[in-house]
UniProtKB/TrEMBL annotation:
It comes from Paraburkholderia unamae. Residues 3-429 form the FAD-dependent oxidoreductase 2 FAD-binding domain. Keywords: FAD, Flavoprotein, Oxidoreductase. Its cofactor is FAD. Gene3D superfamilies: FAD/NAD(P)-binding domain, Succinate dehydrogenase/fumarate reductase flavoprotein, catalytic domain. InterPro entries: CobZ (IPR012831), FAD-dep_OxRdtase_2_FAD-bd (IPR003953), FAD-oxidoreductase_2 (IPR050315), FAD/NAD-bd_sf (IPR036188), Succ_DH/fumarate_Rdtase_cat_sf (IPR027477). This is Tricarballylate dehydrogenase. The keyword Electron transport does not apply.
Amino acid sequence: MIDVLVIGGGNAALCAALMAREAGASVLMLEAAPRAWRGGNSAHTRNLRCMHDAPQDVLVDAYPEDEYWQDLLKVTGGLTDEKLARLVIRASSNCRGWMRRHGVHFQPPLSGALHVARTNAFFMGGGKALVNAYYRSAEKLGVQIRYETPVQTLDLDDGRFIAARLANGERIAARSCVLAAGGFESNREWLREAWGQVNGEWVADNFLIRGTRYNQGVLLRHMIDAGADMTGDASQSHCVAIDARAPLYDGGICTRVDCVSLGVVVNRQAQRFYDEGEDFWPKRYAIWGRLVAQQPGQIAWSIIDSKAVGRFMPPVFPGTRAGSLPELARAIGLDEPAFMQTLNAFNASCKVGSFDHAVLDDCHTQGVAPQKSHWALPLDTPPFYAYALRPGITFTYLGLKTDETAAVRFGGRASPNLFVAGEMMAGNVLGKGYTAGVGMSIGTAFGRIAGTNAASAARGAADSQRNGALHAAA
């Protein structure tokens, strides 16, 4: 019998499989996707948010625990388990050496518009390279891997894992199990259920999926039905305002539009609806998908002038360009008088100080709602550009409630041999909001914990089985 069964194929699953194998357990990993699409959303990532008290290899300056915690507290609005959040934060400070031993390489610090050289360690080659490195290491260590193997249900006995059942009816027993199969962001029906209707139209029908098409939430739904303790809100997710021309699935990081803080964002009525300069973009970019989702038709436009060009990572697709603001309004199909009223009011409200996109500067608006807190410059220098935005779902936050052991809980009781990591439990730390790189921090921390504890549970089960056999023989 296999010691540890890992269900999933992304970062958290791989960390669990590697840790369990290093602990001496036999490990089988089941990935729903084909080999070419393995890795789930982790393949689309770029970095890991890391606590450090002093400069460390690719990380500059310092990013202490309390600052990391305050950043997380701010974006979640307090919807986070502090004990588990601090566990993740501390674990982020000492995981890079282990990652390197498994083939992950980090690139030199970045600077410029991303503002994350101090807080985030970037993977050389991005998430795809990280995933491939982990798979190579897992194969070298003897982890068994099966692709195109979706799990439908689990056999459970009073919270104890017995076996997994595949879509083809096959039953796979193991001494312990780690659930790391992702959320339900690719399940359109579940998204409809979570977001509902507005004016007779399903809000979620206008969503694009930034990540994998294989996260259907099948196991998550099964665990809800099985009575597992849950955490999070089904409508909360890592939801980014992305280019409306992005593909339906797997657009990844390149679909982001990063100029929001350098201009204004208007909806279909040509009205602004939120503070574009509230905070640095890496701390606020993941709120904008939800904001756009709440607008009519789930669409908006980011408007900039030529002063912003070169200050942000350019999108893959060029924006709509025009020589004047009225011409831009006509080009994107917005009501010209309403658009000009909004832009003229914004321009007149700008109190220009010392513009500096690298700091929370003193360029702000006064007398207009919503205000723009920082980086408020009049849009007055042609050419002008517009980027159409749609909500892009990366991963969902509804998940299994857990504790510092990563155990799945049933009625408050921890399962002795069923553990959870990654998106399936991220809602314990992320009740809402997001800050760049924290998803990988959560997956890495809890993947490693889950793998270690699953190996320990398997050893205990094997020892009990041997002792029982010896006792019966005697």
